[in-house]
Amino acid sequence: MLNVYYGKMQDVIYNTSVYFSNVFQKTWLDDEYVRKMIKSVDKSEVIGDYLIKSKALGMIAPTQLSGGVKTLILTYFKPDIIFNATTCGDNCARWFLDMAKKEDRTINLRHIMDFGDKDFEIHILNNDMFVHSMKELVLVAGDFL
Length: 145
Prior knowledge:
The chain is of the alpha/beta class. The chain has one domain (2-144). It has helices spanning 16-23, 32-42, 67-77, 93-102, 134-141, and strands at residues 2-6, 44-48, 51-54, 58-60, 83-84, 105-109, 122-124, 129-131. Strands 5-6-1-7-8 form a five-stranded mixed sheet. A hairpin with a 2-residue loop joins strand 2 and strand 3 (51-54). Helix 2 (32-42) runs antiparallel to helix 3 (67-77). The longest helix is centred in the first third of the chain and has 11 residues, at 32-42. The radius of gyration is 15 Å and the shape is globular. It starts with a strand and ends with a helix. The model has no long low-confidence stretch (mean pLDDT 96).
């Protein structure tokens, strides 16, 4: 289940980029799921432990990945920590939903992320409601932003 809390929240990692730089483990890039996220969101390919081939930037270090991919990777490897996913674009939404199918995940948002046209289930923590479509989500999340 994907849990979302909208607006300011206690005990959240807000600066995911700095946090990522301090906790990154090179073995994370060996994970096929992480490689798929990087390819999907940043259009980049993992070449080695500390090397990623980006279409836009050329050869980069993992710390130069987008804020969205960094937040996805952190959410994937650290499910007990809540991260602010506001730096994530809508292209990250499907990955949050997919991760949460296997194990509960909680994210903090300060905008309405587009989770797509297909049905889904998201638990809005602000009011303990469950939403199943973007129409429902917009109506509920709008009260908290």
